[in-house]
Write a structure and sequence with these properties.
The complex is a heterodimer of chains A (114) and B (117).
Chain A: E1 3-5, E2 10-14, E3 19-21, E4 24-26, E5 32-38, E6 44-50, E7 56-58, E8 64-68, E9 73-78, E10 87-94, E11 103-104, E12 108-113
Parallel strand pairs in A: 2-12
Antiparallel strand pairs in A: 1-4, 3-9, 5-6, 5-10, 7-8, 8-9, 10-11, 10-12
Chain B: E1 4-7, E2 10-13, E3 19-25, E4 31-38, E5 42-51, E6 54-57, E7 64-70, E8 73-78, E9 87-96, E10 104-108, E11 112-116
Parallel strand pairs in B: 2-11
Antiparallel strand pairs in B: 1-3, 3-8, 4-5, 4-9, 5-6, 7-8, 9-10, 9-11
Chain lengths: 114, 117
Amino acid sequence: AQSVTQLDSQVPVFEEAPVELRCNYSSSVSVYLFWYVQYPNQGLQLLLKYLSGSTLVKGINGFEAEFNKSQTSFHLRKPSVHISDTAEYFCAVSVDFGNEKLTFGTGTRLTIIP
Amino acid sequence: DAGITQSPRHKVTETGTPVTLRCHQTENHRYMYWYRQDPGHGLRLIHYSYGVKDTDKGEVSDGYSVSRSKTEDFLLTLESATSSQTSVYFCAISRPVGGAGGLNEQFFGPGTRLTVL
């Protein structure tokens, strides 16, 4: 079975500073990787995904993530954060093609400090 | 917006009572999912469906049952609610994305906040 680890439960960052949210996964087969964002009192929204090909993936709102197979990581980055980026971020993995059941990490709460 | 609605959006109930949550989609996608979200656990899959009357268990299925008699509706039932089932419940659908060679993406509904007293 696959698993996802998000070691940082909370990350405070000053506005306009860069941020990296860490995600590591474990799987015996090839994976598809996702980052979702959840704004306060809302559902989940897809930020970006890695399916195959280029290991650097760009998503919405200026976020990007890099797939590193040797380190089994898929860290999320943004060069300059804004107050509006305050949210909870979830990394997820799927190993099925056609029925993409997701296994989620426990989430990282990003707080932007003005 | 993937046309997913959940009802009710909020519910308070008492231990031992049955509860049914409804997920409705407007796009006739084959795969539908129920997750629960709890602090420190992220989202965990309860049950999923791959077609009318075709369902399977997820990671945390104990105490829950599901039914799908129509493509557009996926019901989650707590036969006898317990306080440990207090949670936020999310429904999701899986739909194809362009240029992905058949891979699907999951889109989530707005969630139902359930409190079991």
